[in-house]
Prior knowledge:
The protein is α+β, with helices and mostly antiparallel strands. Helices cover 15% and strands 17% of the residues. The chain is built from two helices and eight strands.
Amino acid sequence: VTNRGDLRLTLDADNAPCTVSSFTSLAEQGYFDRTPCHRLTGGGSLSVLQCGDPLGEGFGGPGYQFDDELTGSETYPAGTLAMANAGPGTNGSQFFITVGKTPHLNRKHTIFGEVVDPESQKVVDAIATTATDRSDRPTDPVVVESITVA
């Protein structure tokens, strides 16, 4: 649930079991509740909404990191849910949802889910039109109110 609408996502535990387990555990602990999405890019080769830093600065995480779960054939069409990272093996809590072209991401970020329905994709698309400042931070905040894993 975001302050802009509900997003329904599926999680892919078959292809990313560690990632889904970590994400689920953090969600169940309320780790993501009331946290801002700190990055929204829509130009060039990167078009993503990035969330999951409890501080909303882009540097925070849960205090642990874990390995990538990559097949080597990853691509990131609109609606992909994947882990943000600072390089190989640096996954934590930050994640992104793709909203457009992302060719330079290929094979670098663990995919662990996707947007499941047209209504959720409409919410993502509407968020993508939000203005941003020079640091790619939405000027009208996008907030993760809560995440429920069913």
